[in-house]
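Side project, low priority. Logging it here so it doesn't get lost.
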Amino acid sequence: MEFSTGVRNMRPLPGRMADLEAGEHLLLWSLRRWLCGLMDDAPGHWRIVEREFTGRYGAEPGRQLLVGLVRMIALLQSHAERKIVYHRPCCPCVGEDEAALISYIAACQDGDWPAARAGAAGLVAEAGIGDLLETGVRLADQLRNRGAHLPRRAAPVRSGEPVTIH
């Protein structure tokens, strides 16, 4: 995987879950769990994510964070022009699309609007960019307000190579 180098002092995104910061890990883990619940018709995954959020942040703040995550997923589902690839929750790898999502939310957290818009544009069609940005900013703020800061990392450059789900 290659990384863009447009901004100084950005760290490359690790290729493994174990190398992610806590906020990045929480975001990606919960995204994977929620998507597995959708794809496998297994709502138990959703309850696991809800318990993690409410146990970590309290009932109402945890539910607000969950609403932001679910809204982002719904926007990705309705506006993506291609399949967005993710790994199963137990996979130790971080894929290109997963890296793009993490980088996108980090840009929203830092108020880097050109990077956030570019990240959103890499995930959804033009018609969905505004809604995804609005939702990304809310989710990024909710994560930051709960102490989950996502470090700025170089966004992956899609290589055109096939990506597999592990």
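Brief comment: Residues 12-157 form one domain.
Revisit when time allows.
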